[in-house]
Specification:
The chain is α/β, with parallel strands linked by helices. Helix content is about 55%, strand content about 10%.
Length: about 750
């Protein structure tokens, strides 16, 4: 009977598989990715709910990671069937084969349905790679509580500087943002990228546009260093007469600000007589290669770009339509203004080279507006940076040397393994050791998958350049380029050696203050006579408990030159004592920007050292301290000769961890100073990030930076291990005289 049951099991398994096949054959839901939030997300949900077809799986992806997730998922067949994104990324997506022609998803009369340049913006090489669903550009918001008439010229807004109440700015926008500067740049005949994919923010026109903006800031017509959040706050507080922004600006306004706001097209610039022409972004539904093969996915794309969907977006999200067959209410001045502005807007170029313009342009604009460099010098430097990023890829290299090196390494490892196996024969047999191997097998697998495999893949990536079909093996070319400063001066701005020097200085200064403050506070909190010790401990751990992202943004706001808490404190001191201390432009020089970064990171890092030291202090023998006190040792001598040597074995690994974390502290540098001024406060990890995500996705070059960082940290930690000497005051044998656990070991166990 048992044998019959065993024979039946394969048959039952086969029957179960047959029954499951129909269930597995059910069509998978249509996967749709987007980066919408708030009203736009609600409008999309309503549109998808009205779709009569297959089930739709919606996934909201953060905008900052949107492109990278698409690039990682679609080639592996794990991405969406269709996704919504801006048209300017089509050039890069097309080169990476992430999009496919829309085919029959476009309506028969689609050429006549869509407005103006909307359909032309999504056309690449004669093929339409997306269906337009909305168009967005910047326009002029008016605060009707302060001004009543729309200006004809930008200079008319500047003339309001003396007529508005104290503390009110005539015009507020992100002046140092290259995208927001485009309307003024276009009025002077400039462009971010020319027709030959060369850097366009260069020459007399762009220089004059920057001089105009700098004069507006000097006359306090426009605030300095305003970001999106500050622009919204000033308009909500009634401290901005005009704002340059897009339809997304309404989402952050209060009800009162919405009632007093009005949108009109951007004015002209009297100096040139030309209108201000912003960039226009066409949001489109794009089909991935696998999605283009599904009829139901194409049907959903047609539904998302249809007239009913456009009407829903207009009603729910207040998004200007791109279709001629969607009626805009005659009394809707908001939609009418953006529709009128879109007629003269400039569709953003779709060339992959466009991504390389943003970083050098933003740096040049900030340098000019802060007075750090004249426009011609700053823009010339920006052009050199653009050309450096766009330089041709290294030539392909032969993989033979790599294969020989890997073969030699494998041979050495095999010989060592054989030698170790021969030595093991004299000891316990392999069979006796099998239980021990079973205990550690899962840990070995986890470490291999989570640590070793990513390290190997990252190291392999550093030997390649390009992307997609242009990916090529270049050997050590990326490392040679980094270590030779890309053929320029070794300590030029942005070179590996200058960034390494800044990183070492950053690590040393932060570590010094982390240890100093952490140990000092731990010694104070360890005193038994201190009242409310538990309260102080909780309060001092709070900086460590708050996410570093939130802390970094908070400190960045406090360091703002015009509206930060530090400036407010300076103004309070001036008012109280009659002094005339000028507000500090924290991010205009290396010293002050570096100080702002260090202050933020010290706030984040000292609690860790404090907690570790507190744990170590609990294991310091009281009898040793009492004996030293009886022998006449002062408090300082007891600290220096007994306490610190006893806790040093515990602090050593904590200091090593702190050094590694600080060496790679990306959040603080990126969010507080952003590398300002001019990238001088960037560290190695933030420089690697820029090569990967802001400089045409040169992942091989960024991976080479990461490998160098890994090697530097490995050598540094090994060197510190070689130099370390025992710091215990106990006998050389390593144990206490009575056989109890040594104090350093007890301290380690306590932590």
């Amino acid at each position: 009977m048992p044998s019959r049951r065993r024979r039946r099991r394969p048959a039952l398994a086969a029957l179960a598989l047959v029954l499951l096949v129909p269930a597995l054959a059910v069509a998978a839901p249509i996967r749709l990715w987007h980066a919408y939030r708030d009203d736009e997300a609600r409008a999309l949900g309503a549109i998808v709910a009205a779709f009569q077809g297959e089930e739709v799986e919606l996934l909201a992806v953060p905008f900052d990671a949107y492109a990278s997730k698409l690039q990682a998922a679609i080639p592996r067949g794990q991405g969406p069937d269709l996704f919504i994104d801006a048209h300017e990324r089509l050039g890069d997506y097309g080169a990476r084969k992430l999009v496919a022609p829309v085919g029959d998803a476009l309506e028969a009369d689609g050429e006549a349905v869509f407005q103006g340049p909307a359909l032309a913006a999504v056309r690449q090489g004669g093929e339409i790679l997306g269906l337009p669903i909305s168009q967005k550009c910047m326009a002029l918001y008016m605060n009707t509580a302060l001004v009543q008439e729309a200006p004809a010229f930008l200079e008319d807004i500047a003339a309001l500087a003396g007529a508005l109440p104290q503390g009110v700015y005539p015009l507020v926008y992100e002046a140092s943002n290259a995208y927001a500067h485009m309307p003024i740049l276009a009025a002077f005949g400039g462009a971010m990228l020319d027709e030959d994919d060369q850097f366009g923010l260069f020459g007399p026109g762009p220089e004059r546009s920057l001089e105009l903006v700098r004069s507006l800031i000097a006359r306090r017509v426009v605030p300095e260093d305003a970001d999106g959040a500050l622009v919204t706050d000033l308009f909500n507080a009634g401290r901005a007469a005009f704002v340059i922004s897009g339809p997304w600006f309404v989402g952050g306004l209060t009800d009162e600000a919405k009632r007093s706001s009005r949108v009109v097209p951007l004015p002209k610039v009297r100096e040139t007589g030309r209108p201000m022409r912003p960039f226009m972004t066409v949001e489109a539904v794009m089909l991935s290669p696998q999605g283009a093969q599904r009829a139901e996915a194409r049907a959903l794309a047609r539904h998302l770009a249809g007239a009913a969907a456009a009407a829903t977006r207009l009603e729910v999200a207040r998004t200007p339509p791109v279709r001629n067959d969607v009626a805009v209410p005659a009394d809707d001045a908001f939609i009418a203004a953006f529709t009128e502005q879109a007629k003269v807007a400039i569709p953003m170029p779709t060339s992959p080279a466009m991504r390389s313009t943003w970083e050098p342009s933003a740096r040049a604009i900030r340098k000019v507006l802060r007075g750090d460099a004249p426009p011609d010098v700053a823009l010339s430097e920006a052009k050199r940076r653009f050309d450096d990023v766009r330089r041709p890829l290294p030539p392909p290299a032969s993989p033979a040397p790599l294969l020989v090196a890997l073969g030699a390494l494998a041979l050495v490892l095999v010989l060592r393994w054989v030698s170790a196996a021969k030595g093991a024969v004299r000891g316990p047999t392999l069979r006796q050791s099998l239980p021990a191997y079973r205990y550690v097998a899962h840990a070995v697998v986890a470490i291999g998958v989570l640590v070793l495999v990513p390290l190997v893949i990252g190291a392999a990536t550093s030997l390649f350049a390009g992307s997609g079909e242009g990916l090529r093996y270049v050997g050590l070319a990326n490392f040679i380029s980094i270590l030779t400063a890309r053929g320029g001066p070794l300590f030029a701005s942005g070179s590996f050696y200058l960034v390494l020097a800044v990183t070492v200085l950053w690590t040393a200064v932060n570590l010094f203050f982390h240890v100093l403050l952490g140990v000092s506070l731990a010694l104070l909190l360890h005193r038994p006579t201190l009242r409310l010790r538990a309260v102080y401990r909780v309060l001092l751990i709070v900086p460590w408990a708050v996410p570093s992202y939130v802390t970094a943004l908070s400190w960045k706001g406090m360091f703002h030159r015009q509206f930060g808490a530090v400036t407010g404190l300076i103004e309070a001191v001036n008012a109280a004592f009659g002094t005339s201390i000028a507000p500090i432009a924290w991010f205009s020089s290396f010293t002050t920007a570096f100080t702002a970064n260090v202050t933020t990171n010290v706030w984040l890092g000292f609690p860790f050292m404090m907690v570790v030291t507190l744990g170590a202090l609990t294991a310091v023998p009281e009898e040793v301290l009492e004996a030293a006190e009886v022998d006449g040792a002062s408090r300082w001598q007891r600290l220096w000769k007994i306490t610190l040597p006893l806790i040093r074995p515990v602090l050593a690994p904590a200091v090593t961890l702190g050094a590694i974390w600080t060496f790679n502290m990306f959040n603080v540098v990126f969010l507080v100073s952003g590398g300002d001024p001019d990238g001088t406060t960037d560290i190695l990890v933030s420089e690697a990030y820029r090569w990967a995500f802001t400089r045409e996705a040169q992942y091989g070059y960024a991976a080479a930076y990461s490998v160098l960082i890994f090697l530097l940290l490995t050598l540094a930690t090994r060197a510190s291990g070689w130099r370390r000497t025992p710091g215990s005051i106990l006998p050389r044998g390593g144990g206490a005289a009575d056989g109890s656990t040594p104090a350093p070991v007890a301290a380690t166990e306590a932590v």
